[in-house]
Amino acid sequence: QVQLVESGGILVKAGGSLRLSCAASGFNFNDYYMSWIRQAPGKGLEWVSNISGGGKYTDYADSVEGRFTISRDNAKKSLYLQIHSLRAEDTAVYYCARVAVGVIIGVFDYWGQGTLVTVSS
Amino acid sequence: DIQMTQSPPSLSASVGDRVTITCQASQDISDHLNWYQQKPGKAPKLLIFDASNLQTGVPSRFSGSGSGTDFTFIISSLQPEDIATYYCQQYDNPLFTFGPGTKVDVK
């Protein structure tokens, strides 16, 4: 069965950096776009970034463009999110999600359990 | 960016009631609209994709309709396990956006 397991969430000071990881299993990882989606405490969902199956194409939300970098290692079946210049507003649970195959991408059919990033000022 | 609105922000209904949630996009998104359920402390779960298609394994009491800018999500007979927040999400534009959510409680 499809499994996505995030890790790397920590308490970090504003201005710092960290890398989140997502380990995938149960499907042909390199066939799928993958995404990061976050949720601030008590708030709604915010899409953060996408990456194509081969890693060539990426997209970012305006709120994170230039500070976040999405990447993947298909040999390790792993997805990553490198975050720099952390701000208080980056405090959130970060989910990795699989993007369903389709003519137009954008359906998140499987989600991990999330990893919490807390940014202190 | 495409903005998504949902109404109501929250609702309380009795077991067996029909529950209706609406979602509106700031511009035409065709049928590029999904619905997710998020239970407290859990990850979201895909219920409906392409506005009206039920994801495999999702009970048939859930349904969706609409196209363009106006969409509707219905729970035909509310069950206790349906207590959750429901989100719509557009994918017409690569900068995907979610609605603010509708919190559903059982009376």
Structural class of chain B: mainly beta
- Mean pLDDT of chain A equals 96
Q: Name the helicity range of chain B.
A: under 10%
Proportion of β residues of chain A?
over 45%
Give the low-pLDDT segments of chain A: none
Number-wise, the strands of chain B total 11
Shape of chain B: globular
Kindly state the percentage of residues in helix of chain A: under 10%
End-to-end gap of chain B: 37 Å
Shape, per Cα inertia axes of chain A = globular
Q: Note the quaternary state here.
A: heterodimer
Give the helices and strands of chain B as they follow along the chain.
Answer: EEEEEEEEEEE
Mean pLDDT of chain B: 97
Gyration radius of chain A (Cα, Å) is 14 Å
User: How many helical stretches of chain B?
Assistant: 0
Which stretches of chain B are poorly predicted, pLDDT < 50 over at least 5 residues?
none
Number of strands of chain A: 11
If you compute it from the alpha carbons, what radius of gyration of chain B comes out, rounded to the nearest whole angstrom? 13 Å
> What profile does the largest beta sheet of chain A have?
7 strands, mixed
How many separate helices of chain A?
A: 0
Taking the alpha carbons of the first and last residues of chain A, their distance comes to 40 Å
